[in-house]
Amino acid sequence: MKILHLATFLQGGAGRVIADLATAQRAAGHDVTVVASRTGAQGYSNYDAYLNQLEQGGVSVRLVDSLFARDHLQNLQVVRALDHLFPAGAEPAIVHTHAAIPSLIAMIYGGGRRAAPAIVQTMHGWGVPKTAQQAETDVAVLNRVDRVVVPSFQARDSLTSLGVAPGRVNVVRYGIAQNRVELEEADENAFVEMARARHRGDLVLACVGTIGARKNQALLVDAIAMLRGRLSIYALIIGDGDGAALQQRIDAARLADAVRLHGYSPAARRLGASADVLILPSQSEGQPLSILEAFCDGTLVAVSNIPELAELVDDGRTGLHFAAGDSRALAETLIRFAALSNAERHAIRANAREAYRAKYTVAQMTQSYQIVYGEVLRGPAERSARGRAGTRRRVTPAA
Predict the structure, then answer these.
(1) C-alpha distances in angstroms, 346 versus 303, 318, 319, 328, 351?
(2) What is the pLDDT of residue 363?
C-alpha cells in the first residue's frame, strides 16, 4: 500500500508517534512517504532524532513550506510538491494527515484527481490556542475527511462536543516501542545527580514535557516548596520551551538545589525511568507518551486527575492521582507515594506493564490504523464525488 503522511512538524509526542508509525509501516512492506514543513516557527520545528529515525527506517521524507501556516500561497506550494511527487496514476492510496491544515492541503491535492485518495486525519490534540474562525475552519475540515482518529475516548468526546460528527471518529491508542536512545554528556551528568540524591535519601522525581502552562510544571515547584522539612525531594524537569519564568519561581522558593531544569533531551525517557516517580501535573493533555513509556519501563507515575489522564491512569492500580491545579493535593500525593511499601510499588509496576502490553505497543497501533485504512478504502463513492467536485472548484484555506 502507498501511504503518505502529512504533518505540520515532526516534533514532540505527535512527531514520535508519526515516526514510529511510518517506520513500522515501511518495515511491514508498505511504500511510505512523510512530508512536513521545512521552516520552523516560534516553538515549532522538526526534531533531528525523528528525521534520522525515518531515514534509517527507509521512509522517504520531504520538507516543504508550509503545512503549518494558515497561508493559501504557502499551502499551495505543498500541493505543487505533492503533484510532482505523486503524478496522475501514482497517487497514494491513503493520505494520513496529522492536523487540519495538512488535511486541507490533502483535499486540494486530491481535488484535482479523478479518484481522490482516502484521507485519514489523526487529531493529536486541540491544545493550541485557536481563534473562533480557526476553530470553525478546523471542525469543518474534520467533517470533510474520510475518517478522524484520536488517541483516547476523552479526545473523541471533546471533538464531538466541538461539532465533529460522532460517526466519523475512531479511537486508536498510541503505541510505544522499546527505548533506543543513547545518552549525551548532559544526560550522564543528570544521572549522576539523581543517583547522589537517592543515596542521600531524597525522593527522586522526574517531570517530562514542554515547559509551559499546559504541562504546569510550576505546580510541582509549589508542591515541593510546601514539603520543605517534611520530605526531602530532588526533581529533574525535562523538556523544551522557555524555562526562564519557571527558573525564577524555583529561585524565589529557594529550591535551586532541589529542582533542576534539564531542557530538551532525546534521552528524556531514560532519565524519567531512573526516577522514583514520574510526575505529570498537566492542565490539559491528549495521550502523553511519557506515561505510556513509564508503563512500558516500569516507572511509577503520579498524574493530575484531568479526564484525559484519569482515563489513562487507574488511581492506586497503575499509578496515583492528585487534584488538578492543586499544589497541596500534589504534595499530599508525594507523601502518599513515599509511604508505599515495596510490595505496593511492585504491584503498581506490574499492573502498568500489563496495561502497556495489552493496549500500547507500536504493533497494536499499526494494526489498528491498517484496519481504519481498510474501512475507508472500502467506501470510495464519497471520495470519487469529492474528486469530481474538486476538478471544478478547489478548496481554499481559511485564514
Answers:
(1) 18, 10, 11, 26, 9
(2) 96
Q: What's the whole-model pTM score?
A: 0.88
Closest CA to 178 of 367, 361, 352: 361
Q: Order across the sheet with 277-280: list the strands.
A: 259-263, 233-238, 203-208, 277-280, 301-304, 320-322
Instruction: Please give the Cα distance from 338 to 284 (Å, whole number).
Output: 26
Q: How far apart are the first and last CA of the chain?
A: 34
Kindly tell me the burial class for residue 69, based on how many C-beta atoms sit within 10 Å of its own C-beta (0-12, 13-18, 19 or more): middle
**Residue-wise pLDDT tens digits, 156-191:** 999 999 999 999 999 999 999 887 677 788 899 999
Is-contact 273 297, C-beta < 8 A?
A: yes
Q: Hey, is 192 helix, strand or coil?
A: helix
Residues lower than pLDDT 70 in the chain: 127-128, 180, 380-399
Ordered by where they begin, the domains of the chain are 2-175+361-392 (3.40.50.2000), 185-359 (3.40.50.2000)
pLDDT digits (tens, 9 = 90+) for 122-158: 999 886 678 889 999 999 999 999 999 999 999 999 9
Question: Using an 8 Å Cβ cutoff, are 311 and 152 in contact?
Answer: yes
The Cα–Cα gap between 111 and 92 comes to 14
pLDDT at 287: 86
Residue by residue, what is the 3-state secondary structure of 58-105?
CCEEEECCCCCCCCHHHHHHHHHHHHHHCCCCCCCCEEEECCHHHHHH
Distance CA 173, CA 169 (A): 13
Output the pLDDT for position 311.
93
